[in-house]
């Protein structure tokens, strides 16, 4: 019964992607909201990475959390989920690069991942987590084509409209 | 709709919202670091009135080589808030109170063969670290140095630094 098995795998993949979308959306909405509450703390955390010019930090301290919230909301919308997942992958990869350069340069810096929480330091496990989530985002944005998926490519993906 | 169109739309929405938010709430400000010229002038020779000129300077490169050495203590002489926003990795925060050393300080640093004091080179004189070093020297510590250029020069070179709450500050206010 190869066709049935293929359908089951494809359906499972769709549901897993939906689950991953909702999970990533919750993470981005939470992280973005916390950062928006205290932009000065975020600006200080970003500055501590010693990666960006000081003139750019205040702009990004507003822009980044807004982009996170927009990405989180769009991940829940079927019409923009793949674009949001691509943005998610890009952001998470950049976060991983920023953290890795800080570790390599010996800068022990507060992560700033979820607002100005000075007790959460950058670590290699955080770099790995960001890379893993970036790969998950790529999987959502560009799902692998299974034989069954090719035949049902026109079928709309399950949507997750916010209630 | 292709992914690139979706991405462009989301970025456009975020840019508009961020612009409105920045206009309404204003952009966050960063604490102003000391000017580079101030840091450079920290090389000036210094005769300490308390310790009789015994305070030695240490270069940035020499100090860098001593990070992680258990017999060397880095002492951050700036305000606690400044320490928490960034300091030399492994350093302790100690502030003079009314020109006096905090109680128990000399005992806690007694195990260190070398103490390196630094500040933010404010006004180009490293005054706080020089005062601290002079008092530590007078209190009997054998080898007390002041970091040339202070923390601004250290950070400019990308030397090891960290940020975060001061966990020992409650014990030695």
Task: Write a short abstract of this structure.
The complex is a heterodimer of chains A (163) and B (173). Chain A is mainly alpha-helical and 163 residues long.
Mind explaining what this structure looks like?
The complex is a heterodimer of chains A (163) and B (173). Chain A is mostly helical and 163 residues long. Chain A has one domain. Helices cover 69% and strands 1% of the residues of chain A. In chain A, helix 1 runs antiparallel to helix 3, helix 1 crosses helix 5 and helix 4 packs antiparallel against helix 5. The C terminus of chain A is likely disordered. Chain B contains seven helices and seven strands; from the N terminus they run ααβαβαββαβαβαβ. In chain B, strand 5, helix 6 and strand 6 form a beta-alpha-beta unit. The chains are: A mainly alpha (163), B alpha/beta (173). The interface between A and B is large, with 40 and 35 residues. Strand 1 of chain A pairs parallel with strand 7 of chain B, so a sheet runs across the interface.
Secondary structure layout:
The complex is a heterodimer of chains A (163) and B (173).
Chain A: H1 2-37, H2 39-48, H3 57-75, H4 81-104, E1 107-108, H5 124-141, H6 147-151
Chain B: H1 3-25, H2 36-40, E1 56-58, H3 60-64, E2 72-76, H4 80-85, E3 87-88, E4 92-93, H5 105-109, E5 114-118, H6 127-138, E6 144-147, H7 150-156, E7 161-162
């Amino acid at each position: 019964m190869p066709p049935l098995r293929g359908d089951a795998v494809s359906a499972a993949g769709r549901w897993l992607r939906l689950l991953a979308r909702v999970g990533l959306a919750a993470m981005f909405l939470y992280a973005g909201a916390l950062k928006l509450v205290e932009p000065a703390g975020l600006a200080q955390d970003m500055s501590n990475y010693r990666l960006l010019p000081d003139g750019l930090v205040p702009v990004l301290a507003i822009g980044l959390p807004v982009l996170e919230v927009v990405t989180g909301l769009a991940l829940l919308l079927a019409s923009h989920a793949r674009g949001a997942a691509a943005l998610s992958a890009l952001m998470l990869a950049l976060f991983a690069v920023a953290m890795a350069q800080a570790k390599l340069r010996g800068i022990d810096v507060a992560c700033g991942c979820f607002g100005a929480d000075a007790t959460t330091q950058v670590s290699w496990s955080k770099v790995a987590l960001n890379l893993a989530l970036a790969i998950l985002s790529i999987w959502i944005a560009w799902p692998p084509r299974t034989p069954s998926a090719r035949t049902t490519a026109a079928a709309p993906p399950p949507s997750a409209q916010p209630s | 709709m292709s992914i690139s169109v979706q991405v462009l739309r989301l970025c456009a929405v975020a840019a508009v919202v961020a612009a409105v938010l920045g206009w309404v709430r204003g952009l966050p400000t960063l604490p102003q670091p000391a000017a580079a010229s101030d840091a450079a002038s920290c090389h000036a020779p210094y005769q300490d009135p308390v310790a009789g000129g015994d305070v030695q300077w240490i270069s940035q490169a020499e100090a860098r080589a001593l990070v992680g050495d258990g017999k060397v203590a880095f002492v951050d002489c700036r305000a606690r808030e400044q320490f928490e926003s960034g300091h030399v990795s492994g350093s302790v925060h100690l502030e003079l109170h009314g020109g006096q050393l905090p109680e128990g300080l000399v005992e806690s640093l007694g195990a260190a063969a070398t103490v390196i004091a630094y500040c933010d080179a404010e006004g180009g004189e490293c005054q706080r670290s020089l005062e601290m070093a002079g008092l530590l020297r007078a209190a009997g510590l054998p080898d007390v140095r002041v970091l040339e250029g202070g923390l601004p020069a250290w950070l400019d070179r990308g030397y090891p630094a960290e940020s975060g709450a001061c966990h020992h500050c409650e014990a030695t206010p």
